[in-house]
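Propose amino acids for all 457 sites.
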């Protein structure tokens, strides 16, 4: 075991003691970290909503494009977190630090060409998913601003994954808090302008978001290079090491594929929604983001169980990993059942908060209530994905995603909206239905595949 990053401060051992306590130590900071991130997202939605329905619709489309290209970042950080957790569990701090450095290097390699292509191709991307000239114009402005800040908008989550894999999510929470405070101040200032700062409109929202993420990245990098945390980076860790980059890519490509299937399907859904008008797009933008916020507990538990399973498998304790997996599945089911009830009940108040009123309000309420019905199953699927990923088994979640999203959800959405005449509500029902099927399918694979392998190991 290397002495790097092993200072006098005691480090919590997730391969020993109470599983419940370990999961709480991992998931609570991640939950508040995600809360900080969702506050950014909600603020962006709120300020753009003040610019009118066309701006809100344009942002909804542009946001989906940015989320699609960020699938590569998700692959990098998820695979890296799992591998890093296994090295921590095995006591290889030096190897974990080198791996963390390669996660940062891979982020730069992946996103440099994406940013250049995104800034140049923004008008083409928007024209592909909307025929409304005003929405295409506003969406192009939003996309170019978003791509210009993409290193920081996505990179902060790669840095957070390093802390999660090492079992010290409190450091990334600090960076996220700095991010939220900075973004809170920057967004309205850049959207509406003040003094010498011009009003940038829709671009100001995502630029303000990027300013906050930049501040958060700076704080997290400061921790990683300071030696205060378990992972202690040095400049030599940022020299490309092909064998580590390939290992992350080898484990990460199914995760990237899973996210491309999911986010690509969402782009197709946007294309199906566009003929039903700006109100349908705005309702989807709000409903999708709020339901994702309702999944925060699942995202936190997904990250926590990924680390718990990874560290215990690295420490040769598969039975403890199995018990942690089932405990997490039970917890997410109970918590998200309560979340779904709350969103369903308060849907009118939530929709009103984001500026939808009058004739547009019923569409927003219907969208949010339908989408929230899939939250329990989607959250369960996310947690089970984290279990597979922590064990370095990244293909099962990808296969389920591919089978449910494209051959099932998209035909259902088209058939319900066009053939059955349900219009936009048919698309929302197809999304919720696919989440139910996806959750059940991966739960079946976990029970009769992953758990059996763990018991036999």
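Proposal:
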């Amino acid at each position: 075991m290397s002495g790097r990053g092993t200072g006098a401060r005691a480090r919590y051992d997730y391969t020993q003691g109470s599983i419940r306590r370990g999961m709480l130590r991992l998931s609570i900071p991640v939950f508040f970290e995600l809360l900080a991130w969702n506050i950014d997202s909600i603020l962006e939605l709120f300020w753009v909503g003040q610019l009118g329905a066309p701006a809100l619709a344009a942002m909804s489309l542009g946001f989906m494009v940015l989320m699609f290209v960020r699938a590569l970042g998700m692959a990098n950080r998820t695979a890296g977190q799992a591998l890093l957790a296994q090295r921590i569990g095995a006591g290889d701090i030096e190897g974990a630090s080198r791996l963390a450095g390669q996660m940062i290097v891979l982020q730069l390699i992946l996103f440099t060409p994406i940013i250049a292509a995104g800034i140049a191709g923004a008008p083409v991307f928007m024209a592909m998913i909307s025929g409304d000239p005003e929405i295409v114009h506003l969406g192009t402005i939003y996309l170019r601003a978003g791509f210009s800040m993409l290193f920081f908008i996505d990179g902060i989550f790669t840095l957070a994954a390093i802390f999660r894999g090492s079992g010290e999510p409190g450091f990334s929470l600090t960076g996220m808090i700095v991010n939220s405070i900075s973004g809170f101040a920057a967004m309205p200032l850049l959207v509406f302008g003040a003094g010498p700062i011009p009003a940038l409109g829709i671009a100001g929202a995502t630029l303000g978001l990027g300013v906050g993420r930049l501040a958060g990245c700076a704080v997290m990098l400061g921790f990683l290079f300071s030696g205060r945390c378990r992972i202690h980076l040095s400049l030599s860790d940022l020299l490309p090491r092909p064998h580590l980059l390939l290992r992350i890519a080898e484990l990460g490509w199914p995760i990237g594929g899973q996210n491309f299937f999911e986010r690509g399907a969402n782009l197709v859904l946007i294309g199906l929604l566009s003929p039903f008008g700006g109100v349908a797009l705005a309702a989807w933008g709000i409903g999708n983001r709020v339901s994702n916020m309702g999944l925060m507990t699942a995202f936190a538990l997904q990250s926590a169980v990924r680390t718990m399973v990874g560290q215990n498998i690295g420490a040769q304790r598969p039975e403890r990993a199995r018990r942690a997996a089932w405990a997490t599945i039970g917890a997410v089911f109970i918590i998200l059942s309560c979340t779904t009830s709350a969103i369903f009940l308060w849907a009118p108040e939530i929709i009103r908060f984001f500026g939808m009123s009058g004739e547009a309000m019923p569409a927003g309420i219907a969208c949010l209530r339908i989408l929230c019905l899939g939250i329990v199953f989607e959250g369960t699927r996310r947690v089970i994905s984290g279990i597979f990923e922590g064990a370095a088994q990244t293909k099962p979640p990808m296969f389920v995603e591919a089978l449910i999203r494209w051959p099932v959800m998209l035909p259902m959405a088209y058939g319900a909206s066009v053939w059955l005449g349900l219009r936009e509500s048919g698309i929302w029902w197809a999304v919720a239905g696919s989440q139910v099927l996806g959750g059940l399918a991966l739960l079946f694979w976990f029970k009769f595949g992953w758990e059996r392998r763990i018991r036999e190991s």
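The chain has a mean pLDDT of 89. The first helix runs from residue 19 to 49.
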